[in-house]
Amino acid sequence: MTLSIGRPVPDCHDRRDAAATRRAALTAAAGGRGDGVTRPNGEETHYDDHALSFHKTLPHDPTGAVHRPSHAAMVRAVTRHDEGALETLPVGRNRTGSGATPEDPPRYTTGAPSPTTYRRLTSPLTGHVYDVEGADAGAFAIAPAPLLATDELAAEMAELYAMALLRDVPFTAIADESGPDVTAIRQELDSMPFLAGTATPRTRAGRNHLAGRAPVVTGADLFRGSTPGSRSGPWLSQYLLVGSDNSAATVEGAVGNSAASTFPGERANLSEEDGFVLFGTQVVDQRSIVAVEGVDWMTTWASWLDCQNGVDFNGLDVFRPDRRFLTTPRDVATYVHYDALYQAYLVACLIMLADGTRFPKDPGLPESDSRTRSAFASFGGPHVLALVTEVSSRALKAVWRQKWMHHRRARPEVVAALLTLNATADAATHLPQQDLRDALDELRGKIPPGLLARVSAHNAAQNARTDGHVVQDAAAAAGLPTIEDSANFLLPMAFPEGSPTHPAYGAGHATVAGACVTVLEAMFDMHDADGSARAWPYPAFVAEPDADGTAHLAPASPQPTPGLTVQGELDKLAANISIARNIAGVHYFTDYYESVRLGERVATSILEEQLGMYAEPVSVSFTSFDGDTVEVVADGSLAQVRVRDADGDPVTAADWFGRYSS
Predict the structure, then answer these.
(1) Which residue stretches belong to region Disordered (predicted)?
(2) Number of domains present in the structure of the chain
């Protein structure tokens, strides 16, 4: 007697053999994604003291020069996967701050943390990890970082200074230039060749980065991303502001559920302007905890040096008492200080899943237009939510390999410190290598002097505060370089601890942004039936500050907002999160530009492998950050990636995957 009226085909041994065949085919496909040939910019070896290399947490002398034996030991241990040698580095719990040896310099500030604790290196060996899904971490690469004395790096540093100066100006007041100093700062940036679009970069990477910039003609052009969608409409993506709309739900009682409180978070009926995103029967509130305005960090040489030496200033942030919608650059910097790395994209996914009519799935997914099937286990909510988080860890492995194994680029706080040190009377003593001083002179000459003067004045005002948590120890700091107030070009940081304890290039947040947004743009349909870009389906909002320090959502002007599309707001979301790290002072524009494209390729490789596991035709498509049309197509067996560039010309998958390799 049979136990059922039907069994799956294939099954048992046949299924096992079919699964083995498909998995084996993935191995061959993985070899066609590139060799990840990476060429650093050469500055690590060009300058004798490794001034432009990452060495935060290692011991430094009073001028900020790294202890060379420790730096060499770190690079050797990291690149050779020598975890035993890493445990012997003068970092973290191996430090006491005694000042007795060059390997254990003293602390130069007083106050918290007490007792002094030291930070450790962040996942320095992750780039060696292999994976069983998607491209190997070593398959892709990013281009060499800009050199010190170039128009491009000058533009990056000037933009970072401008971001720091405008951290507490609402985005709406930046856009219409009603905020203090916005017009003057915008004009200073627009005077720079790389930001005005008149530079002539010598490298392919530089030309790509220039093409990814738009001229800074108005305040609304400041701090934008590299794609058309990221430059349209308000600066902040709607996915960081709006909530779900469940106004069609049947709710007992009148609007507001007869609740005594007027706070919409207690209601069951919600609209997008309430700012609550449905997560099952719970909600995610788009209002965020934000840092108090006016407080920047690392504006004295002593505090900067302590941070380079690894003193752990984490946890010294001071926050506003009330959460609010993201309103200022400082608000988004706080967001990316504490976010779960895929958080913004998970919330965006929830917004789209809650309104499938306005955010339909890609038509190439089998259940999108089926008369009898609905999506759940495959291509439904559980699938896409898991995929958004899944690609993030693979993206981190890829970028961690680039940042630790290859580029080891110094953070912006270091370049700003070198500019400051080179402006002292004893520059030749502090920076003995002549060509480094010459390059710094050239870099300073490319940054508008008015902007540098504003930075110096800002730092002087910060250092005059009497309520700071990090105060220079007069006795310990007696031997430090003398920094004149008028030439203090240290980069004011949004985080007490400054940058993370891993190299700048590429950026983890930006790589994850590129990967997660690629998944969303592939799984959801970005176009209407006629092929035109799908317009943003809700009214557009901006966060307007209130007198009590909170903020409310107000309709953007005009309505409807021209150029606002679903894909554009996703591209903008990736740019917002990535560039918010620049606003904090911890990354450069090129970290964002290269890394979102790295993440895009990681996600595409995972989509290619997953779609090849289905026994029926399935496809997804998206427009890349470069404007390519990318299709991942499977015929019931293996999948393939098809690409046409922005001009409609075909590009091989191998060339597309390897576009940013050296």
Answers:
(1) 1-46, 81-118
(2) 1
User: H or E element: which one contains 541?
Assistant: strand 541-545
The one-character DSSP state at 632 is E
Contact in structure between 491 and 412 (CB atoms under 8 Å): yes
H helix count then E strand count, the chain: 21, 10
pTM of the complete model beyond 0.90: yes
Residue 190 has pLDDT above 80, yes or no: yes
> Tokens 């106050």, residue?
111
Alpha-carbon distance of 214 to 593, in angstroms, equals 13
Q: Cite the beta strand spans of 355-403 per DSSP E.
A: none
Q: Identify each DSSP E strand in 34-150 by its residue range.
A: 109-110
Listing DSSP states for 491-521 in one string gives --BSSTT-S-SS-SSS-HHHHHHHHHHHHHH
Greater confidence (271 vs 351) lies with: 351
Bridge partners of 554, per DSSP, are 542
- In this prediction, residue 261 carries a pLDDT of 44
Residue 350, helix vs strand vs coil: helix
- The total number of residues written for the chain in this structure: 662
Peptide bond into 113 cis (omega under 30): yes
Degrees (nearest 5) of the Cα angle 36, 39, 43? 150
Q: Is residue 643 part of a domain?
A: no
Q: Does 168 fall in a domain?
A: yes
Is the separation of the CB atoms in 567 and 533 below 8 Å? Answer: yes
Give the Cα separation of 162 and 154 in Å (integer). Answer: 12
pLDDT of residue 266: 76
Question: Which helix (H) or strand (E) is 161 found in, with range?
Answer: helix 151-165
**Which residue in the block uniquely carries the two structure tokens 């220039």?**
210
Tokens of 137: 């971490």
Which domain does 202 fall in, by range? 34-247+266-609
Looking at the DSSP assignment, which residues form a beta bridge with residue 376? 379
Going by DSSP bridges, is the β-strand pair 617-623/629-635 parallel, antiparallel, or unpaired? antiparallel
CATH number at residue 164: 1.10.606.10
- β-pairing verdict for 276-279 and 541-545: unpaired
**Is residue 261 a part of any domain in this protein?**
no
- Residue 246 contacts by C-beta under 8 Å, 6 or more apart in sequence? 268, 269, 270, 278, 354
> Tokens 């930075």 appear where?
455
Which of 52-61, 436-445, 464-473 shows the lowest per-residue confidence on average (mean pLDDT)?
A: 464-473
The predicted pLDDT at position 257 comes to 43
Residue type, 197: G
Beta carbons within 8 Å of 81's beta carbon, 6+ residues apart: 125, 128
Beta-carbon contacts of 1 under 8 Å, excluding residues fewer than 6 positions away, are none
Q: Which among 289, 297, 292, 293 has a CA at the least distance from the CA of 496?
A: 297
Q: Which residues are catalytic?
A: 502, 509
Share of the chain above pLDDT 70, in %: 98
Q: How confident is the model at residue 386 (pLDDT cuts 50, 70, 90)?
A: very high
The pLDDT score that the predictor gives to residue 374 is 86
Give the dihedral of Cα atoms 279, 280, 282, 285; nearest 10 deg.
Answer: 20
Measured between alpha carbons, how far is 279 from 343 in angstroms, rounded to an integer? 13
**403 DSSP assignment:** I
Radius of gyration, alpha carbons of the chain:
26
How wide is the angle at C-alpha 161 spanned by C-alphas 199 and 455, nearest 5°?
A: 125
d(CA 522, CA 518): 6
Question: Domain for residue 162, yes or no?
Answer: yes
* Lookup result for tokens 């070899």: 31
